[in-house]
Amino acid sequence: MKKKAIVNDTPICRVRMQAISDAMSILSGKWKFHILGTLIEGSKLGFMDLLREVDGIGTKMLSKELQDLEVNQLISRTVMNTKPVTVKYAITENGKSLQPIIDELAKWGISYRKSVFNNKS
């Protein structure tokens, strides 16, 4: 019989691991941080504005990611009473709370790129 690996199974550890799992589930994917970062830096943006800003994303994927972010209350979607109908997306307070994390990821990414690409012969 194989022994099970011993891990820290305290209630605090379980809560922490569940929280990490929840965060990763909500924020997973190639595009969510880019969309959130764009909306944090900008004000309300339309779909086509986001499509131009998020380099490489397609319309279907942007639509799906925006829906996911809205369901998770990280962005809001406002339908404007115009002809044709205009939709604007904005960061919510929950979304704004990710700014320090996005800032730290950007700092890490800059540092990482320098260490990897500047050290190559």
How does this structure look, described?
A hairpin with a 5-residue loop joins strand 2 (about 75-80) and strand 3. Strands 1-3-2 form a 3-stranded antiparallel β-sheet. It has one domain: Orthogonal Bundle (Arc Repressor Mutant, subunit A), CATH 1.10.10.10. It has about 120 residues and is mostly helical. It is built from 6 helices and 3 strands.
Looking at the chains present, what oligomeric state does this protein adopt? single chain
Radius of gyration: 19 Å
The rounded distance between the terminal residues' Cα atoms is: 50 Å
CATH class: Mainly Alpha
Q: Please describe the biggest sheet, giving its number of strands, its sense, and whether it closes into a barrel.
A: 3 strands, antiparallel
Order of helices and strands: HHEHHEEHH
The counted number of beta strands is 3
- Helix share, percent: 55-70%
Percent of residues in beta strands: 5-15%
Poorly predicted ranges (pLDDT <50, ≥5 residues)?
none
Overall 3D form:
extended
Name given to the CATH homologous superfamily? Winged helix-like DNA-binding domain superfamily/Winged helix DNA-binding domain
Going across the biggest sheet, name each strand in turn: 1-3-2
CATH fold name, please?
Arc Repressor Mutant, subunit A
In total, how many domains does the architecture comprise?
1
Overall mean pLDDT stands at 90
Structural class: mainly alpha
Q: Helical region count?
A: 6
List the helices and strands and how they pair.
Elements lengths: L10 H17 L4 H10 L3 E2 H7 L5 H13 L3 E6 L5 E6 L1 H4 L2 H19 L4
